[in-house]
Write a structure and sequence with these properties.
274 residues, alpha/beta
Length: 274
């Protein structure tokens, strides 16, 4: 898809990958609706883009953890720019640990943000896309959605589900004009990987697992590097976007010998947790 002159919506766009995607799509000539709960940083992104091309960016403070929040975001985007050509469900959270230490409220919250938000957005865009015989649904999952996430059942499960939903979207609507891409990065230098308030020497084993495993598994990319890779894949309309080539290697090992791969993951877990 050529994004020049198209309307794009990016969630989780106040910083990190989302802000980088918004900037990259805008540089390609797109109108960009940026959405997030962080109104201050979101307004800064909107102002930055509009300073480059007046009237080309629109900020919507949105809570995508509810169906109504997604409806309100889509309605606002349509009211401002009309037909939504591309929706990028990028917002996500990392929360929860194992089965006994993660409460039901946490499970519900991460399911709503990392999975249901994708479903709700697609649900309220699909009829327009099918009628027009065009439209693009993109989502950010994770390498954890292809592999797994040591230390967090909630993150691993929801990211696997996000990949599965994107696959289902492509299978179901791919021959009816709707294109689908799914981003599965590994380490990216964002607040999720490097929380600004994280203790320099966390004492809890689980606190060390997520980010430290990712950092030990491959290169940590900058958000703008990921955004460039995403844009190149959207131009070619590729489904799976893996900015880290080593993830493909790990995935092949998993498919070829799952028991051996699981044993390797347990060794990695023991090494990181101690």
């Amino acid at each position: 898809m050529d994004l020049n002159g198209k309307t794009t919506v990016v969630t989780g766009a106040a910083n990190g990958i989302g802000a980088a995607l918004a900037r990259r799509f805008h540089a390609a000539g797109a109108r960009v609706v940026v959405a997030d709960r962080d109104s201050g940083r979101l307004s800064a992104v909107e102002a930055e883009l509009n300073a480059i091309r007046p009237g080309s960016a629109f900020a919507v403070v949105a809570d995508i953890s509810t169906e109504q929040g997604n409806i309100d975001l889509i309605d606002a985007a349509r009211a401002k720019f009309g037909f939504v050509d591309l929706f990028f469900a990028n917002a996500g959270v990392a929360m929860g640990t194992d089965l006994t230490d993660t409460d039901e409220e946490t499970w519900s919250t991460i399911m709503d943000i990392n999975l249901n938000a994708h479903r709700w957005a697609a649900k309220h865009l699909i009829q327009d896309w099918l009628a027009a015989e065009e439209g693009y649904f993109c989502s950010t999952a994770s390498a954890a959605g292809l592999l797994s996430q040591i230390g967090s059942a909630t993150y691993s499960v929801t990211k696997h589900a996000a990949v599965a939903f994107a696959e289902w979207m492509s299978i179901t609507y791919g021959d009816r004009g709707v294109r689908v891409s799914c981003l599965c990065p590994q380490g990216v230098n964002t607040n999720m990987l490097n929380p600004p308030d994280r203790p320099k020497d966390p004492s809890g084993a689980i606190a060390r697992t997520g980010g430290d495993v990712v950092k030990a598994s491959g290169e940590v990319l900058e958000p703008h590097e990921v955004a460039d890779i995403v844009y190149a894949h959207i131009l070619e309309e590729h489904f799976l976007i893996m900015p880290h080539p080593e993830v493909h290697t790990y995935e092949k090992r998993k498919v070829e010998d799952r028991d051996r791969w699981l044993a390797g993951m347990r060794r990695l877990q023991a090494k990181v947790i101690g």
